[in-house]
Specification:
Strand order of the largest sheet: 14-13-12-15-16
Structural class: alpha+beta
Radius of gyration: 20 Å
Shape: globular
Helix content: 25-40%
Strand content: 25-35%
Largest sheet: 5 strands, antiparallel
Number of strands: 16
Distance between the termini: 30 Å
Number of domains: 3
Order of helices and strands: EHEEEEEHEHHEHEEHEEEEHEEHH
Bound molecules: adenosine-5'-diphosphate, magnesium ion
CATH class of the largest domain: Alpha Beta
Length: 304
């Protein structure tokens, strides 16, 4: 196969791991900085260029779109889809996953367990938002935050209202969420490849930190997940339309609740902690998908 990894940097652990796995499996692979690409939107002849080079002949792409470049990155992925190139995760699914509210709405519809979440536009609803998630302590989140930035724990109702007002003043979209205290600053990252959880780790926030993000100093360890956690994670990835996903769960008193579903989950934490060749499994999935993929048909076509 001729593969392209859409990534800004060859030296990133995840990009490099996928690259090595593709080479090992005997494929031709290239890392393409998608931000430097440009597209020609022409009737019947969609094309993509990197400088003056026309990008052609790829069998599959592996999108690793950074949160900062969601809009442009998804447009590049979509352009490849228009050219009938198989995308490991499709553009619609990636953009869904980047909006926490949209993701939770889709998951809620299918009965996935979630922390109670509220969202409003009208500032007069602020008090009600906090009340409906059970009052303080409450978690306030930016709709498009990542790596724990823009996730705040408000200890009192007054603090919650002030934080919501402050974010609003900056024109940021936020949601309020029930604080799952019993999770104890830890979450479970389930790595889903092709509908199955292939590896899972527990991430524990550093002392005094409720956010478990590895970027915030959290630590990863191997964990055994329950059958319920396993099926919740696999279903969540499927509902989002993601072939590869990092599904983050919190262990709540009322079972596993999904916090978010990541469409470009990092490989370093999971491969290092579990010793599993997750990148290799992703390449195998692409090999199998290519065989069954009907040309000119994306699975999320026509869906929001
Ligand atoms: P980001 O996209 O920035 O990673 P998350 O929604 O994943 O945002 O939140 C970051 C971290 O904060 C999570 O990994 C988790 O440890 C903690 N967290 C988020 N929401 C809750 C919640 N409702 N209850 C308890 N902890 C939470
Ligand atoms: Mg997260």
């Amino acid at each position: 196969m001729k593969l392209a990894i859409l990534s800004r940097n060859k030296r990133l652990y995840s990009t490099n791991s996928l690259y090595e796995a593709a080479v090992k499996a005997g494929h031709e692979v290239r890392v393409i900085d998608y931000v430097k690409c440009h597209m020609e939107i022409t009737s019947m002849r969609p094309s993509i260029y990197l400088g003056d080079e026309k990008l052609e002949g790829f069998d599959a792409i592996i999108p690793r779109i950074g949160a900062t470049y969601t809009f442009f990155g998804c447009a590049v992925v979509r352009q490849f889809e228009m050219m009938n190139v198989y995308s490991l995760n499709e553009s619609v699914a990636i953009s869904r996953s980047r909006d926490k509210l949209r993701s939770l709405q889709l998951l809620a519809r299918k009965g996935i367990g979630l922390p109670v979440t509220t969202f409003a536009h009208d500032p007069r609803a602020t008090g009600q938002l906090v009340k409906q998630v059970g009052g303080a302590p409450v978690v306030i989140k930016l709709l498009e935050g990542t790596q724990g930035v823009g996730v705040v724990l408000a200890e009192t109702n007054k603090a919650a209202e002030s934080v919501i007002e402050a974010f609003r003043g900056l024109n940021a979209n936020i949601l309020a969420q029930e604080f799952i205290k019993e999770a104890g600053g830890a979450d479970i990252r389930c790595f889903v490849v092709g509908g199955k959880v292939v590896a899972a780790i527990k991430r524990q926030g550093k002392e005094g930190e409720f956010r478990s993000n590895l970027h915030r100093g959290g630590s990863a360890s191997i964990v055994k997940i329950t059958p319920e956690e396993r099926s919740t994670a696999a279903r969540a990835a499927k509902i989002m339309g993601l072939n590869v996903a990092g599904v983050d769960l919190l262990r709540s008193n009322h079972g596993p609740v999904v916090m978010e579903v990541n469409s470009s989950p990092g490989l370093e934490g999971i491969e290092t902690a579990t010793g599993k060749d997750v990148a290799g499994l992703i390449i195998t999935l692409i090999e199998n998908q290519i065989k069954i993929q009907t040309p000119n048909r994306t699975r999320t076509k026509g869906k929001g």
